[in-house]
Each structure stands twice: as C-alpha cells, then as structure tokens.
Design brief:
The protein has 2 helices and 3 strands. The chain is of the alpha+beta class and about 60 residues long. Strand 2 and strand 3 form a beta hairpin. It is globular, with a radius of gyration of 11 Å.
Amino acid sequence: MRSNFSEGRNMSVIGQITAEIERTEGVNCWMSIRARLTNRTVVTFVGTPEAVCEAAFRAVKRHRK
C-alpha cells in the first residue's frame, strides 16, 4: 500500500506516522519519501490485507492527533 500524508516538514510527526506502521505486526515498511516543498510524505508498506488496513488506520489516527 502507498499512503500519502499531508506532512512533509515536521520530522517528528513523520517519525510518529512511520513508527505506527512499523510497529504493526505483519507489516513491513519499505520506504518513505518526504517532499518539503509540497508538504507531503508518501509511505509504502506491505503485509497481509488485515495488517495493512490496521497499519493504515493507526498511521491516520496518529496523524490526526
């Protein structure tokens, strides 16, 4: 799955988002690409369908805090 987050400048927030994905059992985070100019971060991660959904939910929930 590839998820796009509206944060590309605050490394603390980006770290929190990717940490949520990485700590989800059954998911591997392949890469994250940060674009400071457009204030976006794209995170690519893979796993079982259930685990990927859980990781995406956790990442979005963390991003909204």
